[in-house]
Amino acid sequence: MIKLLYIFTKPVPFRKHSSKQTNLYHIMPALEVRNLKKSFGDVQAVKDISFSVEPKEFFGLLGPNGAGKTTSIRMITGVLNPDAGSVIIEGTDLKKNFLEAKMKMGVIPEVGNIYPDLSARENIDLVGRFYGLSKATREDRADKLLTDLGLKERADDLTRKFSKGMRQRVSIACAMVHEPPILILDEPTEGLDVMSRRLIVDKVKEMNRKGSTVILTTHNIEEASRLCQRVCIVNKGSIVAIDTPDRLRKTTEMMQMVEVAFDRKVEQAWFLTGYISRAELCNDKWRFYADDLDKAIEQIVKVKEEQGVKILSMSTSGPTLEDVFVKLCEVH
Ligand SMILES: Nc1ncnc2c1ncn2[C@@H]1O[C@H](COP(=O)(O)OP(=O)(O)OP(=O)(O)O)[C@@H](O)[C@H]1O
Ligand SMILES: [Mg+2]
């Protein structure tokens, strides 16, 4: 019974790539999404999205609640049929060759799918069996995953007794046991404590270093900014931007800011010339906004010398990915 249930809910067995496939892996995108659409009644959850992810890339799908991230991931992983469009996994069309495409993925869905009446080790072993791994390989990998994910001491307890964070770590281990070339994770660290979050992130980073492509959905901007090489921002079912976190910050033409504390009162009018386009007082510090930070600082220094005031502190900051995210999602 468990086996039957498993076949319908878990990824299909994974076989080792032939050398021919391995070569292809290096020259074609790991994932291509073409004109994907999905509606639920009147709700257009995904409106026509296309993007491609390079092999070994750490790619983020970032968007607010209800943006269409999970719907996209469910179509990409073959759980949900799209209304239109196609998904190509390492050159294999998911619709035309479902099993072959599924074999290349390790999936951590938004809602975990481990078996509560099996122990952590049994869950991992079961997945390993369905992916055709030998007993020795299954045992080795289960040991390493359980250790790396901080579950070694609870390895033989039933997962129904586990906390949310522990269950999520078992789910991650199950998705990784066949060492898939593509890992797809839907909000893997949502609602977890710092320890669980770190264990999971470190393990995913290790898989990425070893060559797996990672596709991660999140609404945690800081996490996306820190982990992802490229980020695709989705809002209301559409893509609003795809780029590196750095370029996203730069290309949105947002102002840079320099914050200065002076030793005495200054006049706003002294600074509102030349390179500084806006000046505002925030608590006891002045915030000056400019496109060119270097020129703005030169100007501030010149003014303070002319007026005979001293600078007590100065700090600069560019737009954060959060500023970009809010700006893009407001506009669209
Ligand atoms: N099975 C479903 N039936 C009806 N509507 C759905 C279904 N799944 C998703 N939706 C709707 O599609 C839209 C996108 O939902 P989705 O779960 O893809 O968003 P999300 O970006 O993953 O959000 P979150 O960050 O909250 O997980 C929402 O309006 C949601 O209500
Ligand atoms: Mg979701």
**Helix- and strand-based class?**
alpha/beta
Task: Name the CATH superfamily assignment of the largest domain.
Answer: P-loop containing nucleotide triphosphate hydrolases
CATH first level of the largest domain: Alpha Beta
Beta-strand fraction estimate: 25-35%
- How many helices does DSSP assign? 13
State the assembly state of the protein chains: single chain
Q: SSE order in H/E notation?
A: HHEEEHEEHEHHHEHEHEEHEHEEHEH
Lateral strand order in the biggest sheet? 6-7-8-3-9-10
Report Rg: 25 Å
**How does the major sheet shape up?**
6 strands, mixed
Q: Based on CA inertia axes, which overall geometry fits? A: elongated
CATH topology of the largest domain: Rossmann fold
List the domain count as a whole number: 2
CATH architecture field of the largest domain: 3-Layer(aba) Sandwich
Span of the ends, CA to CA: 48 Å
What's the helical proportion of residues? 25-40%
Instruction: List bound small molecules.
Output: adenosine-5'-triphosphate, magnesium ion
Number of strands: 14
